[in-house]
Amino acid sequence: MKEFKSFPFAVKSIEGRAVTGVFAVFGNRDQYGDRLMPGCMTKTISEQAGRIRHLWNHDFTSPPIATVRSLRQLSRDELPETVLQYAPDATGGAEVTREYLSNDLAEWVFEALGKNAINEMSFAFETVKADYSEEMDAAGRKQETRIVREVKLYETSDVLWGANPATAAVRSLPVEAVADTLRSLLAELKEGRRNSAQDLKMLQQIHDHAKELGALCEEKAMTDDDKEKSSEPAEAAPVVTIAPQLALAEARLRAMKVFGF
Question: What is the pTM of this model?
Fold first, then answer.
């Protein structure tokens, strides 16, 4: 399942139309409750480097705005001071060097970068290996942290505003892509790979968003077979069916500036 992370990136250099900047930080607990571990991009950079794109605002429906020239992971010593101020406990990071094309959108983004009118990046990835750890926050409260040990990187993007803790800055995301993401999530849930409290909360949010977009939720009572298989009292289980208003739901979804769960 594709995920998105944002970061107020630091431009390390601009040479001609080639811009090098840090797009990810390792070692710190980010606003999503994740900690990307050093080396989590080693395999994907080695195997997928030639297929990773640089886009504007995660727009998968448009051509790239730049050619990715290099991707590499950084040690803490290689991180700019501005990054360490943002994430004092960072142990490393990742940088991308991309050369901007000459189309109108790429020209606009490149000029905006040079004048610091755009100063955030985001990247799309899939978690390959992760586990969970219960930690204490600064106030002494327990919090669950996902330790991300390996990712598959799809693209890096320049964005106006990065994602907040509950949303991803994805503009005009095709309905088909959303459906594919939900199918992947369903498969992971059935396999037992996603069962944290955060995942259950996300599942409830998906259900609520589906209702807002026009889906119908019907109550389905447990069958006798279901009762025999379960020691729990019989409860009504919500079943989501897609209403005839699919066209309306699609239009609403395409109009959303931000879609995330």
Answer: 0.62
